[in-house]
Amino acid sequence: MDLHNVLDFPILSLSIFLPLAGALVIWLFVRGDNAVRWAALIVSIASFVVTLPLALSFDTSTSHMQFEEFHPWITTFNINYQLGVDGISMPFILLTSLLTIICIVSAWQCITSRVKEYMIAFLVLETTLIGVFAAMDAVLFYFFWEALLIPMYLIIGIWGGKNRVYATLKFFLYTLAGSVLMLVALLAMYFEAGKTFSMLAFMDYPFDFTWQIWIFIAFFIAFAVKVPMWPVHTWLPDAHTEAPTAGSVILAGILLKMGAYGFLRFSLPMLPDASQYFVPFMVAFSLIAIVYISLVALMQTDMKRLIAYSSIAHMGFVTLGTFMFTQAALEGAVIGMISHGFVAAALFLCVGVMYDRLHTREIGDYGGVVNVMPVFAAVFLFFCMANVALPGASAFVGEIMVLIGTFEANPVYMGMSTKWVAIAATTSVVLSACYTLWMYKRVVMGDLVKDSVKTMKDMTVREFGFFVPLMVLTLWMGLYPLPFLDFLHVSVAHLIEQATTSKLDAAAALVQALPVIDAAHH
Amino acid sequence: MANVTFPFPFPEHLITLLPEMIVAVLAMVLLLIDVFITKGNKITAYLAILTTLLAAVATWSLQSSEVLVAFYGFFVFDQFAVYSKMLIFIGTALGMILSLEYMKNEVNIGEYYVLMLFAMLGMMLMVSANNFIIMYLGLELMALCVYVLVAYQREVLRSNEAALKYFILGALSSGMLLYGITFLYGVTGSFNFAVMGEALQHTDSNSHAALMLGLVFLIAGLGFKVSMAPFHMWTPDAYEGAPTPVTAFMSVAPKVAGFAILMRIVADLLPAVQHEYEAILTILAVLTIVVGNLAAIAQRNIKRMLAYSTIGHVGFIMMGLIAGTADGFSGILIYLSIYLIMTMGVFAIIILMRREGIQGELLDDFAGLSRVRPGYALAMGLLMFSMAGIPFLGGFWAKYAVFMAAVEAGHLNLVLFALLFSAIGAFYYLRVVKYIYFDEERVAFNFVESKPLQATVVAAAIGVVLIGVYPEPLMALCKQALGGLI
């Protein structure tokens, strides 16, 4: 097998297993809460450094998988340990390793019970997340995809809020029920595509139309739960609200992207005809997420719940862009995901900062925070504006590209004009401003009335510290997105080519060829 | 087993019975030794474990790639029998190890281990049976011993009740089994699996009704032994009432033996009636999966919950039978091996948590375990996630192997159904994790300190992780173990 790996070094394996190895070392050898904190921080920084070469040595001129690795794993079922990244998956790996550092720093003081288990859970979670984005074998992908439920279940259940048990069970069972359908689809594809689980082989194999439809539905349920799309989104507000701050950060920052990544990696290239066929449904679901969920967000009284609904609405933009099959829309979708990784993560951290002081997330319990926490108010405002997709912030780039792409798609793919889709989606710009800024007004602005708020102290250096990288990245991506887009161009172009090339002719040819091949054998 | 050529010269393959002879003779010797042993002495237990070990060594050293047949085709010794027997040995030995502490205050404890040995002997005969007579002999030997084992705590009321229920229903099922066998004998004129399978290929439509009747009763009778729904009624009561080590023993070893004989029958006897048995088994599998996974949710007692969990697992294992292919059978062996490890680990933890009386059996009793004993909590958590079939743990590959085989055999809808119920079933395993990790301690813990038990827990936890991360050796072993069956 010809492996494409410029570094001649298993960099992806190292990225996946360094956090796990660190977690093992911490479990066995590190004693004392503070030592555990520092050890976890060192491991997470080391893991981040290890993932940097993925971006630095990335070849933006090819759509081929890079940094590939291949080892037989379970030969009985032809399951291989096959890794590789392209421009679409690589940014998520860096995002994961970056957010893990922030999660560990953010937990420095607010997690005081079972610190060791907490840190181990996050490092294991990092392993599984990077594994998801690096896997190029479908079973390996599923392996990591499911395995991450274990640390996430524990994180929400142990360190979560009052209603944590309900939230974590709901999260676990929802996603598990969704993903078993994916497993069935993968097993069916294995036999159809000639006993292989290689995702690249699945992309090349001409599945006929009926197959594509059924597999698409199975994948859709699995991925839609993760994204989450309306109407299977109800686990997310509960999980977000009850999760500890860092848990919400990882949930919003990475976990939600896995669903959309699944669409990009599985549905579009493997099932192009079914993807085209289902465009109206996907657009409808996305628009409902954008408009209806934004309205729902407007009415929330719990800040974390509000941001959770805002996440669903933003992911609606991502799924909309994904199913427009234009370069701008797809790139916008990926940029939107990465940007949402920064912004939603930062917003949850902001809520976490306030929660650490007052132990409430109710909007009504705050008011006039700017008077006691001016620095925090500025940071919070920055990310609120970013959430609104103000020009200059990264979210703007994503949304505008999706909208442009949607307009572009107009004559090409659908009977109905996508112009109206784009117009409907644009309402989100207004709606997101409404719920975000209204929340900001009620929490931060106004007079200092409540006694509890008067006692709040401004952010510490540590707290400010973990916002800095997120602010820098949000601004950088907002003002000069070219370096990020460079990673995407070729990979996205290749994806669009795959997604718009029908497999039906090849499938029909295959069916016709079978009797001939049979005859040749006899 | 297509080419059983016999008669072999009678004494030639007698050596293949060496393991059975070792167990039978040593078990009787043990019964004599036991007369001189004072109460509380564990020497009989160690001797019984040693006997199991000897039988295992004998079986392993006798294995060959050939199919050896003794007693004119009554008794078959192939790789399939060897592997199934090894699972039975491990299950029995672990059952004995779990009994060391739990049963030490019982009277006549020597007989307890002897009964276990005889039950094991029965199972050994079952998996080597190539003939309904031997199969029935082994099955009854096993069943009678297990009835007594369930009732072993004479003064405990629910133990007696459980044994009585088990005995009455078991006797009924044996009757059904015999009834079914007579019909099949009537149709084919033989008790030998291969001969019967051959004869079934040529049956005419006149005997179809009798054949169907026989098939239904046969599956019902064997289904009882492996707790298929709707013949599962005895399982929760027997599991709850039996002494915990016996529960562990009977949830593993007889299941291995039962599925081994089912696989042999499906492979040798039933290819001619594939459609019919597939239909019957599919209905039973659907029922078993539904009953096991839904009823477990309502349980508060962990032994009862595990009883229903076993039923759920049996439903998944049946998918391999329904597939009826080599991959299906090796999937069953993979499932049984991993199931053995998980079950023994879980029961070891339950026994470790046994305080005065029956504490440690309610789910509530696990509350806050992670604070007190993080090691046990981690092991229990891993085993529960493994039973739920979440990856990087062995249980995932167990399910994967049988589901894969079922998909290949074209039972996609059944697999979809089973997987959805496995997701529903995950709930009650997660609930145990919830008690362990999310809840605060309610009652002070008081643990049994026992090195062998702790070693079992550690071995089981490491086992599920290792198999979960690298299942290839086990899968290759199970594939190889089909030699002689297909």
Overall description:
The complex is a heterodimer of chains A (522) and B (486). Chain A is 75% helix and 3% strand. With 522 residues, chain A is mostly helical. The model of chain A has no long low-confidence stretch (mean pLDDT 87). Chain B has a two-stranded antiparallel ribbon. The longest helix of chain B is centred in the middle third of the chain and has 32 residues, at 157-188. The N and C termini of chain B lie close together (6 Å). The A-B interface holds A 73-77, 142-144, 146-147, 149-150, 153-154, 157-158, 164-165, 168-169, 172-173, 176-177, 180-181, 183-184, 187-188, 190-191 and B 385, 390-392, 396, 400, 403-404, 407-408, 412, 415-416, 419-420, 422-424, 426-427, 430-431, 433-434, 437-438, 470-472, 475-476, 479.
Describe the structure concisely for a colleague.
The complex is a heterodimer of chains A (522) and B (486). Chain A has 522 residues and is mainly α.
Show the largest interface. A-B, 32 and 32 residues
> In total, how many beta strands of chain B?
2
Number of helices in the DSSP assignment of chain A: 24
| Rough outline of chain B | globular
C-alpha Rg of chain B, in Å? 21 Å
**Alpha-beta classification of chain A:** mainly alpha
- What is the terminal separation of chain A in angstroms? 32 Å
Q: Residue share in helices of chain A?
A: over 70%
Order of helices and strands of chain A: HHEEHHHHHHHHHHHHHHHHHHHHHH
Topology summary:
The complex is a heterodimer of chains A (522) and B (486).
Chain A: H1 11-29, H2 33-56, E1 66-74, E2 79-85, H3 90-110, H4 115-134, H5 138-147, H6 149-159, H7 164-192, H8 199-204, H9 209-226, H10 235-242, H11 245-270, H12 272-277, H13 279-298, H14 303-322, H15 327-358, H16 369-372, H17 374-387, H18 394-408, H19 410-413, H20 418-443, H21 451-454, H22 461-479, H23 482-500, H24 504-521
Antiparallel strand pairs in A: 1-2
Chain B: H1 18-34, H2 43-62, E1 68-70, E2 75-77, H3 79-102, H4 109-128, H5 132-150, H6 157-188, H7 193-201, H8 208-225, H9 234-241, H10 244-268, H11 274-295, H12 302-323, H13 326-352, H14 369-372, H15 374-388, H16 394-408, H17 412-438, H18 451-469, H19 472-480
Antiparallel strand pairs in B: 1-2
